[in-house]
Specification:
This protein is of the alpha/beta class. It has a single domain, classed as Nucleotidyltransferase, domain 5, CATH 3.30.420. It has a 5-stranded mixed β-sheet with strand order 3-2-1-4-5, with helices on both faces. The longest helix is centred in the last third of the chain and has 24 residues.
Length: about 190
C-alpha cells in the first residue's frame, strides 16, 4: 500500500519525470498534490501498470487532485543542459504551475536541483512508495506517451507510437535509414 505523504503537510507535492532514457522527444515531468483520502484502486509506479490502467488512473488524478501540472524540456534544452538538468527544469516548470503552491516537494530519485523557494526531499523508488509521487509518475508517463504518438503521426518511420522514443532496434534502424529528426536528442548516441 502506498503512503500518503512524507511530511504529513497537506500541500506536499510529488514529482517525477518520464523519458530520460529516450533517443527522441522531450523529457516530461509532473507535480501532483493529492487530497489525503485519495486512494485509487490501481495507482502504482507507472512502470508497474498497464497502459490501460495508467489512462484510467490518469483521469482519476486529474479529476480529484488538489493540484496537478505537467511540463517538459525540449530535445534542444536537453542538448544544451544535459538530461539531468533538463529533467530538473521540467520539474521546476511543473511545480511553478501548481495552484495552490506546495509547501514541500517529494521527488522520485536521488538528486534534484533545489527549487528557489521550496524545501524538498529525494526518495529513491519513491514512485513505488508514495501516492503523490506515483500519481506524478502516471501523469508524466501518459502525457509524454500521448505527445510521442502525436509526433509518430508526423514521423512514422521511427515507431514512436510503440517505443515512445526509447532505443529499440526498430528505432535505431530507422535512424540509420532515414536520419535523425529535430525531435532526436543529438547529444545522445543515436546508433
Amino acid at each position: 500500500m502506498l503512503l500518503s505523504s512524507y511530511t504529513h503537510e497537506p500541500l506536499e507535492a510529488g514529482l517525477d519525470e518520464a523519458g530520460r532514457g529516450c533517443l527522441a522527444g522531450p523529457v516530461f515531468a509532473a507535480a501532483v498534490i493529492l487530497p489525503p483520502d485519495f486512494q485509487p484502486r490501481y495507482l502504482n509506479d507507472s512502470k508497474q501498470m498497464t497502459a490501460r490502467r495508467r489512462e484510467q488512473v490518469r483521469h482519476d488524478i486529474c479529476r480529484e487532485a488538489v493540484a496537478w501540472a505537467v511540463a517538459e524540456a525540449s530535445p534542444q534544452e536537453i542538448a544544451a543542459l544535459n538530461i539531468a538538468q533538463a529533467s530538473y527544469l521540467a520539474m521546476h516548470r511543473a511545480v511553478d504551475q501548481l495552484q495552490p503552491q506546495p509547501t514541500h516537494l517529494l521527488v522520485d530519485g536521488n538528486r534534484f536541483r533545489a527549487h528557489v523557494t521550496l524545501p524538498h526531499t529525494c526518495v529513491i523508488g519513491g514512485d513505488g512508495l508514495y501516492r503523490h509521487i506515483a500519481a506524478a509518475s502516471v501523469l508524466a508517463k501518459t502525457f509524454r506517451d500521448e505527445r510521442m504518438r502525436e509526433l509518430a503521426a508526423q514521423f512514422p518511420h521511427y515507431g514512436w507510437e510503440q517505443n515512445a522514443g526509447y532505443p529499440t532496434a526498430r528505432h535505431r534502424a530507422a535512424i540509420r535509414n532515414h536520419g535523425p529528426t529535430e525531435h532526436h536528442r543529438m547529444g545522445f548516441r543515436l546508433l
